[in-house]
Amino acid sequence: MDNPFSYTAISKSKAVARLARGELVILPTETVYGLAADATNADAVLKIFATKKRPRFNPLICHCANLEMAAEIGVFGEAARVLAATFWPGPLTLVLERANGKTIPDLVTAGLNTIALRVPAHDLTTQIISDLGRPVAAPSANFSGALSATSAKTAFVALGANIPVVDGGACDRGLESTIIALSETNPILLRPGALARDEIEAVLGDKLATPGPDGPITAPGMLASHYAPRASLRLNAGAPEPGESWLGFGPEPGRPGAALNLSPTGDMAEAARNLFEYLRHLDEKSPATIAVASIPETAIGEAINDRLRRAAAPRNLG
Ligand code: TXA
Ligand code: MG
Known about the structure:
Blueprint: H1 12-20, E1 25-27, E2 34-38, H2 42-52, E3 61-63, H3 67-71, H4 78-87, E4 92-97, H5 106-109, E5 114-118, H6 123-132, E6 136-137, H7 152-159, E7 178-181, E8 188-191, H8 197-204, E9 232-237, E10 245-248, E11 260-261, H9 268-284, E12 289-293, H10 301-312
Parallel strand pairs: 3-5, 4-7, 9-12, 10-11, 10-12
Antiparallel strand pairs: 1-2, 2-6, 3-6, 4-5, 7-8
Helix pairs in contact: 1-6
């Protein structure tokens, strides 16, 4: 890359043309930026795995323009229809049985007989998918295992492959979508995310099960270590120790200046929006350890703490 501080932004129509040619683009969504390819084109999808250094066993989410497009590739039962009608477009991914027919290559689903579907709430991206006329496979725009990107520039720089980006501004939610599996009898929360568990349970009138290690369904991408900065993380910290960077939450009178606060007012949505950018910012200063204040486990706190625990997990980055 010539200049690591600039990035190549392209228009909607150029993005559609690139996707149609089997090339990659970085697209905005309300959750995080995605590295997108035409989901019906196996050669294009292969480029996603290569660029992200993503293991092939880890399937991708197909992003659709609307429920109609999604219903061509996934089997919607009653619960799936209700959830889609309530929360799409929005940060909810449904894992459903694959529909018959071969429009989506096995590479996308990593050979599973299920498929992950969502309709993102970002006008630029839903228009691009709609103009393309086909679903778009898009994992988060970052190297496998690293922090997700919530701005166009961060996504462009993080991948370091000069892949053009459609700049849709800062992501509204800042955390990946919540993933629910509905292909079994009881709905399972595969990944906590930007849509809180209780909102989904209220609509389902049912509790979401959490997958056990031996359960029938898991999200293959939910490795213990993920979303990892280079620094190690110390969670639920009361205060920084000497030499540690500090990531605070809520009012902190008297805290020294060289620190970041996810939300000085204790607003969970603001904390979610800031999480990845602030971790990245602190990590750029190469501290040995980032100490992180404790965050309530309520509502999207479940997803924030999930990401923090995975970022803090022992890893072997090789
Ligand atoms: O918010 C989001 O979901 C973002 C934006 C770009 O849409 N995308 C995203 O994709 O987070 P990715 O690839 O980073 O995470 C997708 C997760 C992985 O953990 C993967 O294993 C899981 O979804 N997944 C995909 N298909 C699945 C399937 N058929 N069954 C179970 N898990 C699946
Ligand atoms: Mg990801």
